[in-house]
Write a structure and sequence with these properties.
- The chain is an alpha/beta fold.
- It folds into 2 domains: 146 residues, Medium-chain alcohol dehydrogenases, catalytic domain (Quinone Oxidoreductase, Chain A, domain 1), CATH 3.90.180; 141 residues, 3-Layer(aba) Sandwich (Rossmann fold).
- Helices cover 30% and strands 28% of the residues.
- Strands 3, 4, 5, 6, 7, 14 and 15 form a 7-stranded mixed beta sheet that branches. Strands 10-9-8-11-12-13 form a 6-stranded parallel beta sheet, with helices on both faces.
- Strand 8, helix 3 and strand 9 form a beta-alpha-beta unit.
- The chain is globular, with a radius of gyration of 20 Å.
- The two termini are 15 Å apart.
- The relative contact order is 0.16.
- The model has no long low-confidence stretch (mean pLDDT 95).
């Protein structure tokens, strides 16, 4: 038996609770892992609270990422004792995830724990930091340089936003952070934001084309915020979009793309091939200051995950929430 957050939907309604689970209930997979840490991400908040239809089957263990130690493996890629990391692949949505003391998954979903990081540090980065790195890599592939001008980061106080600010700042870019929580200005400045603006300046319907300001954008918000960010991006600039906190819609026009030649990069962190995942973590190992991880993240126990998911969906959390599943 092991402990896990279990999400159910039946005649009693939708609910998530800490439960004792039999190992025989684990789904199929080549590798069984003793989970050490997981995290709370936006998708996990949706899964636990039921505020979004992300869970595909019930019962479900949420948790879209985890780090832990291999217990059993029928795959030649991993053996008992190996430390491994997982981000994405539909885990926590249609396959039991990481908010659990035990997991069984496909070997192809795992990568070795990145060098230079402990399991806790890798999860302080987690899917949010890894996604932010993929966004930065897209902007780098576009040829973006610090001399090109300001980079906008939306949803700045969240996990992706926090890491995007820290990474871009470390690379020498002038970062402008957009947030609905101006009370977090000192935190965002500490991460490296040169300026903090109210998200209200971007979240309402805007013009198809606006005054050019941003050399590039990392957006985790979507909807009108993404549309306005594109409308304000300089000619030949780039926007990396990875989230939909404001909405899935994109109320824009083709004007920024045709008249200014901007590029919109869609960042899908869920099914990225293993080689690109490893490359992203290699860059993270060079760019992430371990002190920054302490500033961005804080740790909770598995029993607190449901309560903190409610706080996450209410916008009352900043940065990263690491879940110690064995406490």
């Amino acid at each position: 038996m092991f402990k896990a957050i279990l999400v159910n939907k039946d005649d009693q309604g939708y609910r998530a609770e800490l439960a004792q689970v039999d190992e025989a209930s684990l789904p199929e997979g080549e590798v069984k892992v003793k989970v050490l840490y997981s995290t709370l991400n936006y998708k996990d908040g949706l899964a636990i609270t039921g505020k979004g239809p992300v869970v595909r089957s019930f019962p479900m263990v949420p948790g879209i990422d985890f780090a832990g130690e291999v217990v059993e493996s029928t795959s030649p890629d991993f053996k008992a004792g190996d430390m491994v990391l997982l981000n994405g692949w539909g885990v926590g949505e249609n396959h039991w995830g990481g908010l659990s003391q035990m997991a069984r998954v496909k070997a192809e979903w795992l990568i070795p724990l990145p060098k230079g990081f402990t399991a806790k540090q890798a999860l302080a980065i987690g899917t949010a930091g890894y996604t932010a790195m993929l966004c930065v890599m897209a902007l780098q592939s576009h040829g973006l340089k610090p001399s090109d001008g300001e980079v906008l980061v939306t949803g700045a106080a969240g996990g992706v936003g926090s890491f995007a600010i820290a990474l871009l700042s470390k690379l020498g870019f002038k970062v402008v952070a957009s947030t609905g929580r101006l009370s977090e200005t000192a935190y965002l400045n500490q991460l490296g934001a040169a300026e903090v603006i109210d998200r209200a300046a971007l979240s309402a319907p805007g013009k198809p084309l606006a005054k050019e300001r941003w050399a590039a954008v990392v957006d985790s918000v979507g909807s009108h915020t993404l549309a306005n960010a594109c409308a304000q991006t300089k000619s030949d600039g780039a926007v990396a979009a990875c989230g939909l906190a404001q909405g899935m819609d994109f109320p824009s026009t083709v004007a920024p793309f045709i008249l200014r030649g901007i590029t919109l990069y869609g960042i899908n962190s869920v099914t990225v091939p293993r080689a690109k995942r490893i490359a992203a973590y290699e860059q993270l190992s060079k760019l992430v200051d371990l002190k920054t991880l302490d500033e961005i993240s804080h740790e909770i126990n598995l029993a607190d995950a449901v309560q903190y998911a409610e706080k996450l969906m209410a916008g009352d959390l900043r940065g990263r929430v690491i879940v110690n599943v064995n406490q």
